Amino acid sequence: MVGSLLGVYGLRHTRFESTPQGLFYTPHTYLGIALSLLFFARVLYRLVHLSLDTSASHAAPEFAQSSLTLAIFGLLAGYYIAYALGLVRWRNSVVLAKTTRAPGAPDA
Prior knowledge:
Elements: H1 2-12, E1 15-19, E2 22-26, H2 29-52, H3 59-64, H4 67-99
Antiparallel strand pairs: 1-2
Helix pairs in contact: 1-4, 2-4
């Protein structure tokens, strides 16, 4: 839920361009990087924590059972899914606008 809200926030701060060369967008740089770094830092922390714990005989299942790690992954996944759906929606609206434009109208 929070990840999808961040995805919507990221879409609102994305610059979209439709040029004769194609469709382009410039994403909100800091938000995507921050979420990716948060997840990477959490995975790195878990790997270090599990490697130092000599009593853990089943490190792989324990790694996937961390609720905080899964929550951060859900945040990242929700963000990227919402962002990707927003990009598809934008692309479809631009293509639809170009196909329904009056004949002889200049390209936007």
